[in-house]
Amino acid sequence: MTDLTIHPIGERALTGSVPVPSDKSIGHRALLFSALCNGKSRVSGFSFSADNVSTADALRAMGVRIETTGKSELTVEGVGLHGLRAPDKVLDCGNSGTTMRLITGILAAQPFASKLVGDHSLMKRPMMRIVGPLRARGARIEGAPHPTRANDITAPLEIAGLREDEYLGPLEYESPVSSAQIKSAILLSGLFAHGATHFKEPSLSRDHTERLLSALGVPLRTVGTMVELDPAGWGGQMPALDIEIVGDISAAAFLLVAAQIVPGSRVVTRAVGTNPTRTGLLEILRDMGAGISVEAQGERAGEPIADIHAWTQPLRAGSIGGETVARAIDEIPIACALAARASGTTTIRDAEELRVKESDRIATMATVLRAFGVRCEELPDGLTIEGKEGPLEPADIDSRGDHRIAMTATVLGLLGRAPTKVRDVDCISTSFPRFVGTLRGLGATLDVT
Ligand code: S3P
C-alpha cells in the first residue's frame, strides 16, 4: 500500500502550465463503442487510467483485440454490434462503476451469459438503478442484496444470455436521478432492442454518449433532458472511430483549486474538455471569486476544449446546489477544499448522490476536513463548511480507497502547519496516474512511501 507525505508549501507557490490525463468518461465510451464498430479504430491522447484499463480488459475477455500502439495510443478491432464472444472469465471491473454499469447495458442484450465483479468499493455500489430498467425491457440480471440499501442490489451481477427467441423490447424510462451511467447503460441496451428507447432525467447529466453515438450515425434525438434512440430503419453498423481524447476537467479540477488556495499561484491546465455538462466547477469557482479564465481552443472529437488559467484570488463562501451539482458531481470533494479557504460558511446541498460514489463522499469529506481543523457539518444531501484562515492542522488521512478523496487531501496538505500523511493512495491511478509528478512539476514537495 502506498502512502504520500505532503510537505507544507510555505512561502512557495504553484506555477506552471501542464497537460492533464485524458477524460476518463470519454475513454470508456471510446473503447466500448469502438469495440461495437466495424473496422479498426484508433484512440489517441489516452492516459491508461486504471478505470479505463478495466474497460479494455473486459472487452479483451470478450474477444476484442485492443493493442497499445504508442505511449498514449491504442487500436481497437471492432467486432460489430453482434460480434462479442462469451467472456472467457468473470469480468472484473476493478474500481470502475462506469465499466460495470455501461457494460451491463451491452451484456443484457447478448446471447451468452456473463458475470461482473469489482473491488471492495464497487461491490457495495447500488446497481438496481440500471438493473431495474433493463429488466423492464426483458433483461435477466441478478445481483446480491445490497448490505445497507433496502430493495437495492449490488455486484456480483449475473446476466443470463438471451435465448434465440428472446430480445429486448422498447423502453420508456424516467430516472429519478441525473446519471450518465444510467442513461448510457439504457441507451447501449437500446442499440440491440426491438423498439425505441426513451430516457428522461431530472437535469442533464454528461452527454458524451449522445455526442459520440450520434457521430457514429446512431439515430439519437435529444430534447432537453429527454433522449430517444429509435433503431427502426437503422442498419446497425457503426464505422470505425479515430478519436483523440480531450483532457479531463475532473482531473484539472484539483490543480485549478490548488492554484486558488496556495497563495501566489498561477497554473494553466491545457486542452481540457469544457463540455457544458461537465463545467459546474468553473461556475462554482467564479461564484466564489476565484481567479479563472477559460481560453477556448476549438473542438476535439465533437467536444469543446480550452486552456484554463487559474490564479490565487481572495475567496468568498458559496452556495452550491441545484442542477450545478450534476455538472460538478465528481468535483464536489475538491470544491470542499475551496470552501475550506473561503471567507464565511459555504453550503453544499442536493448532492445526496455523493453518498454512493467510490466512498460516501459526504461522510468522508467531513472526516477529512475535521482532520485539517476545518469546521463542518454533515447534511443528508451535502455539507456546511466554515472557511479557515492560516495554516491547517497536519492531518493523517485514510483515503478509504477513493481517488478523489486522496487527491483532495493531498491538495489541502500543501497548507499544513507540518507534513500531512495521506494513506492508501494507489487509488489515484484510477483517474490521474501522473498526479504526484504533476504537482511536483508545479512546485510541491511530496514523498511517496
Ligand atoms: C460517469 C458518470 C458519473 C460520474 C462518474 C463517471 C460516466 O456517475 O460520477 O465518475 O462516465 O458516465 P453517475 O452517472 O452515476 O452520476
Keywords for this entry:
449 residues; alpha/beta; UDP-n-acetylglucosamine1-carboxyvinyl-transferase, Chain; 2 domains; four-stranded mixed beta sheet; 26% strand; binds shikimate-3-phosphate
Describe the overall structure.
The chain has 449 residues and is of the alpha/beta class. It has 2 domains: 4-22 and 246-448, Enolpyruvate transferase domain (UDP-n-acetylglucosamine1-carboxyvinyl-transferase, Chain), CATH 3.65.10; 24-244, UDP-n-acetylglucosamine1-carboxyvinyl-transferase, Chain. Helix content is 28%, strand content 26%. The chain has helices spanning 24-36, 50-60, 97-107, 128-136, 180-192, 208-215, 249-261, 280-287, 332-339, 361-371, 403-413, 435-442, and strands spanning 4-6, 15-19, 38-44, 65-70, 73-79, 91-92, 114-117, 141-145, 153-159, 171-174, 197-200, 220-223, 226-229, 242-244, 266-273, 291-300, 303-311, 319-320, 345-348, 376-379, 382-386, 396-398, 420-423, 446-448. The strands form 6 sheets. It has a 4-stranded mixed beta sheet with strand order 22-23-1-24, with helices on one face. Strand 18, helix 9 (332-339) and strand 19 (345-348) form a beta-alpha-beta unit. The chain is globular. The termini are close together. The model has no long low-confidence stretch (mean pLDDT 98). Bound molecules: shikimate-3-phosphate.
